[in-house]
UniProtKB/TrEMBL annotation:
SUPFAM superfamilies with a match to the protein in the record: Extracellular hemoglobin linker subunit, receptor domain, LDL receptor-like module
Chain ranges of the Annelid erythrocruorin linker subunit C-terminal domain: 173-295
Coiled coil: 74-101
InterPro entries: Eryth_link_C, Eryth_link_C_sf, LDL_receptor-like_sf, LDrepeatLR_classA_rpt
Name assigned to this protein: Hemoglobin linker chain
Domain of life, per lineage: Eukaryota
Signal peptide: 1-42
Pfam families reported for this sequence: Eryth_link_C, Ldl_recept_a
Keywords: Coiled coil, Disulfide bond, Signal
């Protein structure tokens, strides 16, 4: 009114003018910066094209870092590697020493355990099983006895089922086994040949499904002896059976002299390769000679 401008309109106009001026000023500075950057890039590209660019114009501070590790040169790295190798070799030697000690002590433990088994077997033999002849002791606290022919027949007859245990029902004279023993002919009171070497070859083992307790055995017996100062060898075919209850096998008389052969294992772990053999009269089981046979490889 009255030709005067509104102070509010004047202030608004001045603020807009100032804002436009500021925006214009900022745009100018932006163009200047972009021009400088573009110029610098253009110069660098031109240098690359001319091959005059040098990488040492931008050098990073990599002090303390090398291909062999922080702060190491090749010589120092090699020294450290040798130190690790030496320590590793030392640890290997210590490990080998501990392993040798363990194996030695473990062997001692096994030998002592085996010795205890042998002593236990001897004590059992001296004390007796507490069962009648031709009977099997079931073991345990109740001292139960069953007939030998019931052992390993496929049906548990002992209260603790020990008569069907795997370590009991194991034939220690399977087919292919070869046992050999040497005799002192001066101790032989029965045989006509007085053999010096007695070899048994188990050729066949057959188990009757209706009578598993007594596997049938076929064997060849080789006798080496001297006659008229010359070494002789005779071969005899024999049949017999294996007895799980007594861990033994018996060969029936192969000749008319009625002499059979019986070999019994002591069932001590580690002694499966030997048995105590005896040549005896079949009728009364009178023993003519006793000797040890060992299993041949």
């Amino acid at each position: 009114p009255g030709g005067r401008l509104d102070p509010c309109l004047i202030a608004l106009h001045n603020s807009r003018s100032g804002h436009k001026h500021t925006q214009h000023h900022n745009r100018m500075w932006l163009l200047v910066v972009l021009g400088l950057v573009a110029g610098s890039l253009g110069a660098n590209v031109d240098r690359v094209k001319r091959g005059t660019w040098h990488h040492d114009r931008c050098v990073c501070d990599q002090r303390g870092y090398t291909p062999w590790g922080r702060g190491l040169d090749a010589e120092a790295f090699s020294g450290r590697l040798d130190g690790h190798a030496s320590r590793l070799e030392q640890l290997q030697q210590e490990y080998k020493g501990l392993l040798d000690k363990f194996e030695t002590r473990w062997k001692d433990v096994q030998e002592k355990a085996h010795h205890l088994d042998v002593v236990d077997h001897w004590v059992s033999d001296l004390e007796g099983s507490g069962c009648e002849e031709l009977h099997f002791q079931c073991g345990g606290d109740n001292k139960q006895c069953i007939r030998n022919i019931l052992v390993c027949d496929g049906s548990a007859d002992c209260d603790n089922a020990n008569d069907e245990a795997s370590h009991i029902c194991r034939n220690l004279a399977p087919a292919g086994s070869v046992f050999e023993g040497h005799l002192n002919k001066d101790d032989d009171t029965c045989t006509k040949r007085k053999p010096e070497t007695f070899r048994v070859i188990i050729t066949h083992v057959d188990s009757n499904p209706w009578f598993k307790a007594r596997p049938h055995i076929q064997a060849t017996v080789l006798l080496t002896f001297h006659e008229d100062h010359e070494e002789q060898t005779d071969s005899l075919h024999a049949t017999g059976y294996y007895d799980y209850a007594t861990h033994s096998f018996t060969l029936n008389p192969p000749e008319s002299d009625q002499l059979d052969f019986h070999c019994e294992f002591d069932n001590v772990p580690g002694h499966e390769d030997r048995c105590v053999g005896s040549i005896r009269h079949q009728v009364n089981h009178h023993t003519c000679v006793t000797f040890t046979l060992r299993k041949k490889d």
